Glutaredoxin domain-containing protein
Amino acid sequence: MQYGAAAEQAWYMPSAIAAVAAAPETAEERVERLASESAVVVFSVSSCCMCHAVKRLFCGMGVHPTVHELDLDPRGLELERALAALLGGSGSGAGAGGVVPVVFIGGKLVGAMDRVMAAHINGSLVPLLKDAGALWL
């Protein structure tokens, strides 16, 4: 019985691996993880007209992006700062108006609304969507 008790006690001992796995995810890591989970990911604010326009653009093309509304996320401000840093901004947190929408296609940063619209106008958006598996036309 002593072996059974020792084995049972060892099973409950926390390991270093479990401690590392339990470490909280940084905002940058979370953005990277969320961006890679779907073919098209849009970080948005629910009341932003530019965010609405980019979501409508994708839906009009037959693409259904995964949308993360920063104003509805408890860590939205942290994510906004991480996105601003990715875009080369200060991430001051003065409001999401200058940062969102931020679009990732195939896990890669496309950018804000200006970059998405430029890619759409110059014809490079559709090939990006096809390569990511979001569009089959």
In short: The radius of gyration is 20 Å. The chain has one domain: 25-132. The chain is about 50% helix and 10% strand. The longest helix spans residues 49-60.
